[in-house]
Amino acid sequence: MIKNIDNSVQKLQTIDGHFDLKEYATDDLYGYNMEYPINLGYDNERINPRNVDYFFKALAGLNGESITWKKVEVCCPYESKKSTTGAGTLEIYEVSFGTSSLRLYVNLFEKGKLLCPKGLTIKK
């Protein structure tokens, strides 16, 4: 059960090919737990991968390093009215910078407040 869905959230504007993130997560679970994924919201199947790029292009490593990201798994089906099948899924992305890497849960079907997860920074 996803606990951080918020359909009242407005989609962030994009600037120079990335979302205009301004806030940091205060919750250690945000993005790291399947119940608190990064909810990018559903546009359509063609645009959703672009939203993933917009999100990750807004982030940097702890010391401002460039990051790389790749989808490593699809998991965690749940009931969703935003999908024609009646179910949404989460995608797990591996994010790497320097010698560090972390895994984040991303939801392409539901909306929620977009924040910079702990362990990363907002790109300057």
Question: Count of helical segments?
Answer: 1
- The parts where pLDDT drops under 50 for at least 5 residues are none
Distance between the termini: 34 Å
Order of helices and strands, N to C?
A: EEEHEEEEE
Shape: globular
What's the arrangement of strands in the largest beta sheet? 3-7-6-5
Structural class: mainly beta
Mean of the pLDDT scores? 93
The largest sheet, given as strand count, sense and whether it forms a barrel, is: 4 strands, mixed
In total, the number of strands is 8
Strand content: 25-35%
Q: Gyration radius, to the nearest Å?
A: 14 Å
Helices and strands, with pairings:
Layout (H helix, E strand, L loop, with lengths): L13 E2 L2 E2 L18 E2 L8 H9 L2 E2 L7 E12 L7 E11 L2 E8 L13 E2 L2
Parallel strand pairs: 3-7
Antiparallel strand pairs: 1-2, 4-8, 5-6, 6-7
Task: Write a concise keyword list for the protein shown above.
124 residues; mainly beta; 4-stranded mixed sheet; two-stranded antiparallel sheet; 1 helix
Question: What is this structure, in a nutshell?
Answer:
It is built from 1 helix and 8 strands, in the order E-E-E-H-E-E-E-E-E. By secondary structure, the protein is mainly beta. It has a 4-stranded mixed sheet, with no helix packed on it.
